[in-house]
């Protein structure tokens, strides 16, 4: 295909009555000239283009552009003038999704406080939480979880595509990329320590579903990840690992075998019971709000 023709197809069609207003808005956003942006949006001829997608490549609304570039002041101005907080681009990505993807923590906070959906768009097969877990940004991860993001969220795939790859949710991504703090945070917020997938329909379509323990061991994840899964109540008898007495054992495998040989202490079982009760009440991360001694609170939150 001719490159000129391809780019002409990517460029959105201009409205007949757009005499450069969209371009001026986008220029103000790119330069983070929030005062000029505010002045422009006070005029009706500009404000009617506040949610219009324009520009080359992936056409963007001014808010998506501001979120992508981390222009916090422009984001605030646009929202104050009524920009649609969950507007979609041609890839069904929201401004929040773009802010998370580019690691703009302050923009993420502003968008979430303005009511942006922490789950992103139902028309996009990814989600902001999956991106944050993959990239290891624990601050953004906590913001999303505090605003109601699902800890066991899966990529949105058609039913025929459900397989073991489809079960690689936030916990697996955090482990695969070595992000221990994100991994621990997800567990503290109630992520499933076994399959990292709560959809029975998906698990039923997989001949041999792999537990997180098994997956982490097979992929050589650090023993810290194995220990956290054990501490958070993963079923140590589920992993189906063939024992090779001649092969050297990893530290993670040693931890698993020790957990199978020795029952959990009463304190450890009590901690798990409290976590399950809080999860059932919809407040899995509320341990820090309990009026109990600091040493006990730290133990319940798996802190030293």
UniProtKB/TrEMBL annotation:
Pathway: Protein modification; protein ubiquitination. Residues 263-303 form the SOCS box domain. Residues 14-23 have a biased composition (Acidic residues). Keywords: ANK repeat, Repeat, Ubl conjugation pathway. Coiled coil: none annotated. Pfam families: Ank_2 (PF12796), SOCS_box (PF07525). InterPro entries: Ankyrin_rpt, Ankyrin_rpt-contain_sf, E3_Ligase-Neurotoxin, SOCS_box. Residues 1-24 are annotated as: Disordered. ANK repeats lie at residues 58-90, 91-117, 124-156, 170-198. Gene3D superfamilies: Ankyrin repeat-containing domain. Interacts with CUL5 and RNF7. Probable substrate-recognition component of a SCF-like ECS (Elongin-Cullin-SOCS-box protein) E3 ubiquitin-protein ligase complex which mediates the ubiquitination and subsequent proteasomal degradation of target proteins. This is Ankyrin repeat and SOCS box protein 12. It comes from Grus japonensis (Japanese crane).
């Amino acid at each position: 295909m001719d490159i000129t023709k391809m780019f002409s197809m990517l460029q959105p069609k201009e409205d007949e009555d757009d005499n450069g207003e969209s371009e001026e808005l986008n220029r103000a956003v790119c330069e983070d000239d929030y005062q000029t942006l505010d002045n422009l949006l006070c005029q009706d001829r500009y404000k009617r283009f506040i949610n219009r997608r324009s520009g080359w490549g992936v056409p963007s609304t001014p808010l998506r552009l501001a979120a992508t570039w981390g222009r916090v002041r422009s984001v605030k101005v646009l929202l104050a003038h009524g920009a649609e907080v969950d507007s979609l681009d041609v890839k069904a990505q929201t401004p929040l999704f773009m802010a998370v993807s580019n690691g703009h923590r302050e923009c993420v906070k502003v968008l979430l406080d303005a009511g942006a959906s922490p789950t992103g768009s139902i028309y996009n097969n990814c989600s902001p939480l999956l991106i944050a877990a993959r990239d290891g940004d624990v601050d953004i991860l906590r913001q999303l979880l505090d605003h109601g993001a699902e800890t066991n969220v899966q990529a949105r795939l058609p039913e025929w595509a459900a397989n073991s790859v489809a079960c690689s949710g936030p916990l697996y991504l955090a482990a695969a990329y070595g992000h221990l703090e994100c991994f621990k945070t997800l567990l503290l917020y109630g992520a499933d320590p076994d399959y990292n997938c709560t959809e029975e329909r998906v698990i039923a379509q997989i001949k041999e579903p792999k537990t997180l323990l098994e997956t982490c061991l097979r992929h050589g994840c650090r023993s810290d990840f194995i220990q956290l899964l054990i501490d958070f109540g993963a079923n140590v008898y589920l992993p189906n690992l063939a024992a090779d007495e001649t092969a050297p054992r990893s530290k993670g495998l040693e931890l698993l075998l020790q957990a199978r040989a020795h029952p959990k202490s009463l304190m450890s079982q009590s901690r798990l019971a409290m976590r399950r009760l809080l999860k059932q009440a919809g407040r899995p991360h509320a341990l820090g709000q309990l009026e109990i001694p600091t040493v006990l609170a730290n133990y319940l939150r798996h802190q030293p």
